[in-house]
Write a structure and sequence with these properties.
The complex is a heterotrimer of chains A (316), B (334) and C (496). The N terminus of chain A is likely disordered. Chain A contains 12 helices and 8 strands. In chain B, helix 2 crosses helix 9. Chain C has 496 residues and is α/β, with parallel strands linked by helices. In chain C, 37% of the residues lie in helices and 17% in strands. The N terminus of chain C is likely disordered. Chains in contact: A-B, A-C, B-C. At the B-C interface, strand 6, helix 10 and strand 12 of B face helix 8, strand 18, strand 19 and helix 15 of C.
Chain lengths: 316, 334, 496
């Protein structure tokens, strides 16, 4: 870290665009102000048509997720059915953007979703901790892609991030991107372990520069997971990258988004930070499992004018 | 002459009591005029002092060339019966404000501890020039005993404000418990150039009581010392000049407050005024003209000056009057 | 460029804040609020007709519709009010123990909370400010000011380092139209907590919430005459300020009027505090958290349509990040929602009056004539009512009118600086000194700047924050005296 050369060290020549590790440094983030801004966007009042339109958009942006040790083919098939047709009574709703599963269940999901536009996403890279050797992590990725995953949700090495070995973080992401081939790469920062928005911002920039198509907040296994302010910080990184390069990176808050109201808050964040171009499943996803039913309940409530009962919605 | 002799006698007695009488003839005789015992060929003509205003650390005459005369009353020493004192003008006031303005930033930038050291040095110098200050007051018509008390109080007051320079901030500043994730505090700051129309009496204590709190608050000032006893003011300026006070921090004009003060009131570099005057019209005029730049104007009737002699003549309030409050907010976050 | 509206984001990279997902109208329900068609004066605890029998209209600036008519107090009415205040002072209020006074003031605070929504709606109707601001800022702060000062009423012996204090007597208080209820709270709460009685003169374009506050005072059972409200225009205010029975004048408003009041009280024994205009510098360094700084810039100038004395109306941005900040700002103001003040999603409401709108237009025209480049949010404005789109100018010279004069509207002047010294020089190069902002990630620089800025309130990495515990007020021609905090109490007390 003393010679100028090492200041711009970035992986091997085979890898994508250089990430300038130390210059210019990422802009600092003021915690209080960013939380204030995120909260203020939560006060947008969304009524009637705007609410329904937002909720329907949220459904189409959902990565319906199950990531448990007890996951079975049956569970995954049921979830896939829900992703394809979230509400039997209203085929205009959905489908969801993707289902997100462990690699072993990718073939099940692939089969269940055959012929549909719903993507299969798989977590990989020694999810959720990422604490395995790189070759193991890359093998994990390659196998998931071979098994039929359209999208890979990787985890960054938070230990490397927090110990200052940004080159390692960068290199692993770049290598994973290479291993993905045509599959889209979502880079999970696990923001709940990064300690501050400054580190989130820096990790976002590394994830983007190293080739991530999306940056994603969380595995869902660590609290706090997605929050509006941490999402805003990541959206700002995406915006600055867009300003600098014209390239649009996607965003995926995951974990902790459970209610329709929350999902609208996130959509407002996107709408007022990045604008119309990002209001699409191609560039914004929700990683969630419990969210869908609440969104469906609220859509039904708007349609019928009556508050809904949770038992009326299938719990897949 | 009769008056002078009488007072001279009293003074000598006082000094004898204190054991500080000057050696006879050392600097006493003032002229070679023929006395009761005829012409004294051994008499020495003393060197009279030219009284000047104190601006920018220098002693200056009025740019206008005008003067007024003050008659000596108690004096067997240096002064002739009548002395000529500069009659400060509008332009002198302008120059004084420029000097005060020029000194303001560096005076305010010093540490409060350093300002305290300088004011303490002033007290030391005043103590060493006690005789001179007392004589000046006596010439101005104050009895020896009163003059002695006034000088003592004035010196003690200088010590008082010296010790206040690095204390008042802690008393007037606040940490503001705002309802949110912010750290807020309010601190005192100097206003900048403060113009003081000093009370005519008490001549020395009036100056010390009005000017020193302004200095302690890290302001610089332009002072109109008035016409009643300008000599005491000038002697005090000599104390200022020989303490470590940087030039321009205090600028003292002699002359008529009614002539000079309205110009100071209109002056846009003067941010505050402290007017001690029996002249109600002058007080009102300063308040009115001060509105031009929203000046902070304090006015006091002559009767208020009487309070300066006692404990009521000093305190935190004297400093606080010429402080601004600056409130600072900052988020608390990581 | 003169007259031409340009947008520096007119390139392929400009973000598109279009119609992909539109918010539906979200009007605040107003069916629970009724505004009486006619309002009398509140004098001596009674609602009295003006002696002249004259009334003036107060209108909704967002629709230009008449809301109500309001009594116009002349000098006779002012005299009645001052006498009522004097009686209340002499007979009751100055003799009442602090702990009892405190409870009355607490009652007012509580009632403000209970009636908050109604008051917020009337505030937005009468003054044009967005409901989200009157609901989330004006009302909570107004209630907080009464709560805060209520608690001081029986603790004033601690407030002045042991110095003896006494109330001043009758306070004549004249307040502006930008924060009608909040300014009434800033004035009344410390005054009555310290044992004074008051005669309040609200601004003529926004009298309604002060009258609702008077109703609260009445319902709280305050002794008659402790709080009096006389409505009217400049002549009413002048009569109040010059009334010989007034011991204290407190004014918030323009520097011009403040100077006139200062002249008017010259030679009297009246105590005076003034909270006047501003032209605050909001200084953004290259090392700032820029996205948050942009929020601070937006909040600094577009909050309350820029009708804010401490508005950050001069943006001083370090030259190396000027273009980036301008790009971000251009995109950001495209998201501002301008329109119906009662819509819960409105960010920028109506300009308070036709007169103010004309003044803003005039200064904006001056900015264009002087060659500055205008950037205006691409928003549609309602066809009725007084509206002005969020606007900023780049290429502004320090000598330009829009860099020197208070516009009091949603119009920002952007200037650049190269070094911290230059930032200070430009920031302080104004007759005003109310507030300033600093944006940098470097702590030492915050303090360095904060020490040198000649301003009564300095916001570091934030802007337009207010709190009753935090003294507010200006340097130089932004006035003197402080409101809020322990320091604010001395505006309403005489100290030994």
């Amino acid at each position: 870290m003393t010679a100028p050369d090492s200041l711009s060290r970035y992986g091997s020549s085979a890898r994508p665009a250089p990430y300038p590790l130390f210059y210019p440094p990422p802009p600092p983030v003021d915690q209080v102000a960013v939380e204030e801004r995120a909260a203020s966007l939560g006060k947008r009042s969304l009524k009637k048509g705007a609410k329904v339109a937002g909720l329907k958009l949220a459904v189409r942006m959902m990565d319906l997720t199950t990531l448990e040790g007890k996951d079975t083919p049956g569970k995954v098939r049921a979830m896939c059915r829900k992703a394809l047709l979230p509400l039997d009574s209203d085929p205009s709703i959905g489908p969801c953007a993707a289902v997100c599963v462990y690699p072993n269940l990718v073939p099940v999901a692939r089969a269940a979703l055959a012929g549909s536009a719903v993507k299969v996403a798989s977590v990989a890279t020694a999810f959720p901790s990422g604490q395995s050797p790189l070759d193991v992590k890359l093998a994990d990725v390659r196998r998931a892609v071979e098994l039929g995953a359209d999208e890979i949700d990787m985890v960054i090495d938070r230990g490397a991030m927090l110990s200052g070995d940004y080159a390692k973080v960068f290199d692993e992401i770049a290598a994973t991107k290479e291993a993905c081939g045509k599959a889209h790469l979502k880079v999970i920062l696990e923001t709940g372990e990064l300690g501050s928005y400054d580190v989130v911002r820096k990790a976002s920039e590394i994830g983007i520069a190293a080739g991530g198509d999306f940056i994603k907040t969380s595995t869902g296994k660590v609290q706090p997971a997605a929050t509006p302010p941490v999402t805003l910080v990541m959206l700002e990184a995406i915006r600055d990258h867009y300003y600098a390069t014209g390239r649009r990176i996607g965003m995926k808050p995951a974990g902790g988004v459970r209610t329709a109201k929350q999902s609208l808050h996130y959509l407002v964040l996107v709408k007022e930070t990045l604008g119309d171009a990002w209001l699409t499943p191609d560039l914004f996803r929700f990683g969630a499992s419990a969210l869908l039913n609440d969104v469906l309940m609220q859509i039904e409530k708007e349609k019928t004018g009556a508050y809904q009962a949770s038992e009326d919605f299938s719990k897949d | 002459m009769t008056t002078r002799r009488t007072l001279e006698k009293e003074r000598t007695e006082t000094e004898t009591e204190n054991g500080t009488a000057l050696p006879d003839g050392a600097s006493r005789s003032m002229t070679h005029a023929e006395g009761a015992n005829g012409f004294d060929p051994a008499a020495r003509l003393s060197v009279a002092k030219a009284y000047k205003m104190f601006v920018g650390g220098a002693f200056v005459r009025s740019e206008s060339g005008r003067y007024f005369q003050v008659r000596g009353e108690a004096d067997g020493n240096a002064d002739p019966d009548v002395v000529n004192v500069p009659r400060g003008s509008r332009k002198d006031a302008r120059d004084a404000v420029l000097a005060a303005k020029g000194a303001a930033d560096s005076w305010a930038a010093r540490t409060a501890f350093n300002r305290g050291q300088i004011l303490y040095r002033l007290a030391e110098v005043m103590e060493s020039r006690r005789e001179e200050l007392q004589t000046a007051l006596e010439r101005g018509g104050v009895s020896g005993a009163e003059a002695s008390r006034e000088v003592a109080t004035a010196i003690d007051r200088a010590v008082y404000y010296a010790g206040f320079c690095d204390k008042f901030q802690a008393l007037v500043a606040t940490s503001n418990p705002v309802a949110g994730p912010h750290f807020g505090f309010s601190v005192p700051e100097p206003m900048g150039v403060v113009a003081v129309v000093a009370p005519q009496r008490p001549a020395l204590l009036g100056l010390v009581s009005t000017v020193l709190p302004v200095l302690a608050g890290a302001n610089t000032c332009v002072v109109v010392a008035g016409t009643d006893d300008p000599r005491t003011a000038v002697v005090w300026c000599e104390c200022l000049a020989t303490s470590d006070l940087p030039g321009g921090v205090v600028n003292v004009l002699t002359g008529q407050a009614s002539e000079i003060a309205p110009h100071l009131a209109k002056h846009r570099e003067v941010f505050a005024m402290d007017v001690w005057s029996a002249d109600a019209d002058l007080r009102a005029a300063v308040e009115r003209e001060g509105s031009g730049n929203v000046k902070r104007v304090r006015t006091h009737d002559e009767s208020d000056a009487a309070k300066l002699t006692g404990e009521t003549g000093q305190g935190l309030g004297f400093i606080e009057r010429f402080l601004e409050t600056k409130t600072v907010w900052h988020p608390v976050g990581v | 460029m003169s007259g031409e509206i340009t947008k520096s984001g007119d390139d392929a990279l400009a973000l598109d804040f279009g119609r992909a997902w539109e918010y539906a109208p979200a009007p605040e329900a107003t069916d629970h609020v009724t505004i009486a068609p006619r309002h009398e004066l509140f004098v001596g605890g009674k609602w009295v007709a003006p002696r002249s029998g004259k009334y003036f209209d107060t209108i909704n600036p967002a629709t230009e519709d008449k809301l109500a008519e309001v009594a116009e107090a002349d000098e006779r009415d002012v005299d009645d009010a001052v006498q009522a205040a004097r009686r209340a002072y002499d007979r009751v209020w100055s003799k009442m123990p602090g702990k009892e006074r405190a409870k009355y003031v607490f009652r007012i605070a509580r009632a403000l909370q209970e009636k908050a929504r109604e008051l917020a709606i009337v505030e937005s109707l009468d003054g044009g400010k967005p409901i989200k601001e009157s609901r989330d800022v004006d009302l909570p702060l107004a209630a907080a000011h009464f709560f805060y000062h209520a608690g001081w009423a029986d603790k004033l012996d601690y407030a002045f380092h042991g110095r003896a204090w006494r109330p001043l007597g009758v306070a004549g208080q004249i307040i502006p139209w930008n924060f009608p209820l909040l300014m009434a709270a800033w004035k009344i709460a410390p005054a009555i907590a310290c044992g004074n009685t008051v005669v309040l003169k609200p601004a003529e374009t926004t009298p309604l919430t002060a009258l609702l506050l008077a109703r609260i005072v009445e319902e709280a059972g305050l002794p008659p005459g402790v709080v009096n409200v006389v409505t009217g225009a400049g002549a009413t205010g002048a009569a109040l300020a010059s009334h010989p029975g007034v011991d204290k004048v407190a004014f918030t408003g323009s520097t011009d009027v403040g100077k006139r009041i200062q002249r008017a009280v010259a030679g009297t024994k009246k105590k005076l505090t003034l909270e006047l205009g501003g032209k605050a510098a909001n200084v953004v360094f290259a090392d700032a958290p820029l996205d948050q700084a942009v929020e601070g810039i937006v909040n600094g100038i577009y909050f309350n349509q820029g009708h804010v004395c401490c508005a950050g109306s001069r943006l001083l941005v370090e030259e190396s990040v000027h273009d980036l900040v301008v790009r971000k700002l251009t995109d950001r103001i495209a998201t501002l929602r301008v329109g119906d003040p009662l819509d819960k999603n409105t960010d920028v409401g109506a300009i308070n009056s036709k007169m103010q709108l004309d003044k803003i237009r005039q200064l904006v025209a001056a900015g264009e004539e002087e060659g500055a480049e205008r950037h205006t949010a691409p928003c549609a404005l309602p066809s009725r009512g007084y509206f002005f789109p969020p606007t900023f100018f780049t290429g502004v010279a320090q000598s330009s009118r829009i860099a020197r004069e208070e516009i009091f509207g949603p119009v920002l002047s952007v200037l650049t600086f190269r070094t911290p010294d230059e930032a200070i020089e430009k920031a302080n190069n104004t007759m005003y000194g109310l507030s300033a902002g600093i944006w940098t990630d470097k702590g030492a620089k915050i303090f360095w700047m904060a020490q040198r800025l000649k301003a009564g309130v300095v916001w570091g990495n934030t802007y337009n924050k207010f709190d009753p515990s935090s003294p507010f007020g200006g340097y130089k021609e932004s006035g003197f005296g402080r409101e809020g905090g322990r320091q604010g109490l001395s505006a309403y007390t005489e100290l030994a």
